[in-house]
Amino acid sequence: MKVHVLQHVPSEGLGSIQSWLEKRGATVTCTCFFESSALPVAGEQDLVIALGGPMSVNDEEILPWLRAEKKFIREAMDSGKAVLGICLGSQLIANALGASVQANPCKEIGWFPVTATQPVQDTFRFPAVANVFHWHGETFELPAGAVHLARSAACENQGFQYGRRVIGLQFHLETTPDSARAFVEEDNGEELVDAPYIQTAQQILDAPLSAYAGINALMVDVLEYLTAD
Q1: Distances from the Cα of 146 to the Cαs of 86, 91, 117, in angstroms?
Q2: Looking at residue 77, which CATH number applies to its domain?
């Protein structure tokens, strides 16, 4: 399996996805936009994973590589390849499909539940309720033709599926204790302020190992679904 990763900042990597890729014996390449914006030929991969980042999909004037990235994502989708978007990555998929991305009514940072929308049978089905890790201030509109998969109290559009092989998730199922710590350390208290849907650094880091095990297992389910024959 050939996998290409779109990584936007050093602190937001593959997390638990790394071990799944290793177990599958995947050949993994990466465009690390903080080093180089060079992209491979779209459609030559079996799976494209677009990770998170602090920038906005609307920052094309100051980050012109966003245009090329969205074009690459759209071409991968049009060629029938599996595409997974996480946080910013989900917003990039939505925008590449013509949907708008804008500020959510409130930021959502920390461990909060999402509820499944119980969509049609031929889409990925989340548990009725799952406590997952969030770190986002923007949200996407649902692209035309997409199926709404999940919502939360703070954010209506938490996940969507487009066709059989494209899933965008606003939340982070790949988070590990190390990556959660990297989020907190990278923030330096800038976003971790007193607000209804923002936890403190201590609350975030006090999550039990079982919380990570739960979301990482759900991440495996998503990956297996996307790459199934």
Answers
A1: 16, 13, 13
A2: 3.40.50.880
